[in-house]
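Incident log, support desk, overnight shift.

02:14 A customer reports that sequence design results differ from what the structure should imply. Their input is reproduced verbatim below. On-call engineer (initials T.W.) acknowledged and began investigating.
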């Protein structure tokens, strides 16, 4: 009895905690928070930013290179000089000073179109990375829905157990009164007490599962896992989805299909980039140079200064590189063929996933209606059983079974509701309509 009272106090404390004022977190709020704060989404956004930097003009190869250089030299020597007439001169402290500076710019005028195709590849890589970011966001959104509705389901289990405990407590009070007036035995009271005890244990366990589910959702949202919140158990469904429209939209907008098509395009660009290596390259250069020197008396000129512009044009043509380019072209073509096969395979897999997901969607629609009817039936059965039990027309075991049946029906109806929403979300993701 003492242990039962302690358990009762624990349950009362849990109920009070659950009923405390907390902010309401809707599924739309959860998705918004996750897109801004989810750790994996933030990394994906940074990867997209990297691809954008690589796609900029500064990485295009179309800009010239400019460099500047300068030099100063000094020497102090002793020189012995024999002139053409045979005379000999020795000069101590023969000082030579020289200065030079230059600014040079170089530009690739033509590189066999390799630069052009690299720029296109960088742009397509950016688009590919954006698609990968979208794919990760879609998967995160699906995870948000699944985790959010798991919290909602656990909340309803706790709520249903609270109702069950209320009925069990009412039964215990009735058994006490009946025992007092000699209409029941002590065993009836003990059985009622045991059932209430079991319900209290189940409630404590379910409440623990609810708290764990909330922490998992907070982690997925990318925020402190102990942030308290209330859950919205109301589910809003979209208009009935059509299988043909879903399949048509999936072929055009499904993220996996888009990624596979983009892979084929990138393979084509790799082939063009490698073929461009067969063509010659033309480079141009221009520089402005300045040189000045101070020479000893033994030099032909005591001072010398030059400055001016120098222009250059060069051509290089790799006529044979040992077969490396030819090898790369062959492997690029094979890679493209593989990606085309993957594209076709992915199309068939997508079609299969749509058919399977739609079948599941229809099954969940039937289940939610059946479970709703089941709740009504079990509620009526419990109400009648409760009334008959109060009149002493049925045994406690029948009352308990009706109580358990109602609890299971309420849980199954809640699960059917959330399962249908998840089935709908899966179809929207396949159709490429989950994230705008």
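02:41 Re-run completed on a clean worker. Output:
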């Amino acid at each position: 009895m003492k242990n039962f009272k302690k358990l009762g106090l624990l349950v009362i404390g849990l109920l009070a905690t659950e009923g405390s004022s907390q902010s309401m977190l809707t599924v739309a709020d959860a998705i918004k928070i996750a897109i801004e704060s989810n750790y994996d989404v933030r990394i994906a956004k940074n990867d997209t930013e990297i691809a954008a930097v690589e796609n900029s003009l500064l990485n295009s190869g179309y800009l010239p290179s400019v460099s500047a250089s300068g030099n100063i030299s000094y020497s102090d020597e002793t020189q012995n000089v024999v002139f053409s007439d045979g005379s000999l001169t020795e000069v101590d402290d023969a000082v030579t000073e020289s200065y030079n500076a230059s600014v040079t710019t170089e530009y690739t005028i033509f590189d066999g179109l390799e630069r052009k195709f690299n720029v296109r590849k960088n742009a397509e890589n950016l688009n590919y990375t954006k698609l990968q970011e979208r794919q990760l966001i879609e998967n995160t959104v699906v995870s948000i829905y699944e985790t959010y509705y798991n919290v909602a389901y656990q909340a309803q289990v706790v709520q249903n157990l609270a109702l069950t405990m209320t009925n069990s407590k009412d039964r215990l009070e009735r058994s006490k009164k009946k025992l007092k007036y000699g209409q029941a035995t002590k065993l009836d009271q003990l059985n009622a007490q045991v059932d209430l005890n079991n319900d209290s244990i189940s409630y404590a366990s379910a409440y623990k599962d609810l708290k764990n589910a909330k922490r998992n959702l907070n982690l997925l949202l990318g925020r402190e896992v102990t942030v308290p919140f209330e859950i919205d158990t109301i589910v809003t469904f979209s208009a009935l989805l059509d299988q043909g429209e879903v399949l048509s939209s999936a072929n055009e907008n499904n993220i996996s299909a888009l990624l596979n098509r983009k892979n084929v395009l990138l393979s084509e660009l790799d082939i063009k980039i490698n073929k461009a290596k067969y063509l010659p390259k033309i480079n141009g250069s221009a520089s402005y140079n300045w040189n000045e020197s101070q020479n000893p008396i033994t030099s032909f000129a005591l001072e010398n200064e030059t400055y001016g512009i120098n222009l250059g044009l060069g051509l290089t043509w790799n006529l044979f590189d040992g077969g490396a380019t030819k090898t790369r072209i062959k492997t690029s073509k094979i890679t493209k063929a593989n990606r085309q096969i993957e594209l076709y395979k992915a199309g068939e897999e997508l079609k299969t996933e749509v058919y399977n997901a739609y079948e599941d969607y229809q099954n969940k629609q039937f289940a939610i209606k059946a479970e709703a009817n089941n709740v009504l039936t079990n509620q009526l059965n419990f109400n009648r059983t409760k009334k008959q039990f109060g009149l002493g027309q049925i045994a406690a075991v029948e009352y308990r079974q009706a109580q358990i049946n109602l609890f299971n029906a309420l849980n199954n109806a809640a699960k059917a509701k959330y399962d249908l929403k998840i089935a709908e979300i899966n179809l929207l993701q396949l159709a490429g309509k989950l994230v705008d």
